[in-house]
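Question (not urgent): is this output format expected?
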Amino acid sequence: MAAGDAIDASLVRRLVAAQFPQWADLPVKPVANGGWDNRTFHLGEALSVRLPAARRYAAAIEKEQLWLPRLAPHLPLPIPEPIALGRPGEGCDWPWSVCRWLPGETAEEAAPTDLVRFAEDLADFLLALQSADAGGGPPAGQHSFHRGGDLAVYDAETREALGKLEGEVDTRRARALWDAALASAWDHPPVWVHGDVAPSNLLVEGGRLSAVIDFGQLCVGDPACDYGIAWTFLDADARAAFGARLAPDPGTWARAKGWTVWKALIVVAGLPGSNFRQLALWRRALGEVLADPEG
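Got this back:
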């Protein structure tokens, strides 16, 4: 079974040669910071290969294959274009995908030159995504790790993290934000939700947002989770521009804070399953959301 660190360029070469011999002569190179849920590799100059890192991420592959081509025409920025679906084999137990390579560097590697404009462009992308027909789309659930769904799923571990961090962070403020998030609900028709709007999934070229990648948590539901980047990456001015463009109702903004509080707390508290490589990012995000005077 290939999982995590066992997924390497050698495995990708074997898979490609066995299933897509037309690309067998293309070089395979791992992508720097190639993902947590998935591992991504260059295949030649124009293609990429994406393999799930564990069974729980495998559902994302076929979901992206089905829905990304349908969503792409409605969006103002490029998204991954699947061109082939790989089968389990060669020691890989799950489906995998070949997509066209999207140029650019992630926003965490290449900072936008104008963060306010970046925030507005991202908001416009999310609004377009939400405007696409959500009929028949996959409802939020385990496949999306409950992004787009009910925050209460994570209530127990949020409160566990709060207990662990007593005296280390402002847990009184964090509890207040969490309780406010749980007190609200999305009472509109479900919309498309990216599910992981993070600087590592936003590409930058020429200083501007150029593409959005990694739709593994794609679902239809409540978009509040997509707004957490307001505190994980944006500064105060960009956050204000982002919020003004999106114009969410107060409950949705409260839930966006709730999603941020949950993830930041479990990472900072060191709960199992957290991506500790992003500890600095989530420490910063926790400080930003706790200090935000709005709500």
